[in-house]
Amino acid sequence: MLLAAVAVLFIGLSKAGFGGGLGMLTTPLCVLAFGPRDAIGILLPLLCAGDAFSVYHYWGKWERANLKFLLPGVVVGVVIGVQLIGRFSARELNICIGLLAVAFVAFQLLKEKIFAAEGAFAPNHKVGVPCGIGAGITSTFAHGAGPVVSVFLIPQQMPKERYVATTVLVFTWINWIKLPFFVVDRSLVDLPVFAPEAIINAQTLGQSLIFLPFVPVGVWLGVWLNRKISEQLFMKVVYAMTFLTGLQLITGFNPAKWLR
Q: Which end of the chain offers a freer environment for a tag, N or C, measured as fewer CB atoms within 10 Å?
């Protein structure tokens, strides 16, 4: 429960604009608390709540044209991701989420070198659709589409506020696109695009409501931290935590056994 509370605080922190990479730590921490499938279902309503704060704060400051390049692929990626979730065991999902977490840290450390070339990238469907598919799949598995979306947005060399606002807009759409696929049970709607069982159900929704107050608290904490400490220092700690949590999910190592 403590891990989950911290994870949900990170949703608010990231939505407040403090440390865009914080969201990637949220899912691994909740997986440790609840298991992979429940964690994914518990987090989506909380992410949607966090999006509401962000959209209000950044309203109209985004580059909306990016949606037409990314969203067609996102829909396809979400449909693929929902089908794959039902085909993996909890252990295999843990490994997938752990690998995404470790890859995210590596991407964050290397992105400045990757995008060092001069000249802004002009977004297009040729690149946007594959990035959208990748974002849809990784977001469905682990709410972890951040690196894929960044690969598409960072080379456009937008001003910081516009970049953050555009990221907020894109993830708001991704999360709302996922929502019906997570709620509907295939036994109720005989369509193969939905998961065999609803990922968001009465039990996961109840857990989401318990942790909902931590989202605005995280937003407030993000605003406060922005005034108190360096974002660079804080993010180094977050990247270390994300990397170690990812390794734990991959290896299955459980330090709590030492206490028994």
A: C
Q: Which residues contact 120 (CB under 8 A, 6 or more apart)?
A: 155, 156, 157
Backbone angles phi, psi at 191, to 5 degrees: -130, 130
Q: What span, in angstroms and rounded, lies between the C-alpha atoms of 25 and 40?
A: 13
Give residue-wise pLDDT tens across range 204-223.
899 899 999 988 888 788 76
Radius of gyration of the chain (CA): 18
Range of the domain at 74: 2-259
Task: Give the residue carrying structure tokens 């660079």.
Answer: 232
Q: Tell me the pLDDT tens digit for each residue of 26-46.
A: 777 787 778 777 888 888 898
Our CA angle for 153, 77, 154, nearest 5°, is 10
Instruction: Convert the pLDDT of each residue in 56-84 to its tens digit.
Output: 878 888 899 999 999 999 999 998 888 87
What pTM was estimated for this model as a whole?
Answer: 0.78
Residue 156 CA to residue 195 CA, distance in Å, equals: 35
**Which class for 221: exposed (0-12), middle (13-18), buried (19 or more C-beta within 10 A)?**
middle
User: Could you tell me if 245 and 100 are in contact, meaning their C-beta atoms sit under 8 angstroms apart?
Assistant: no
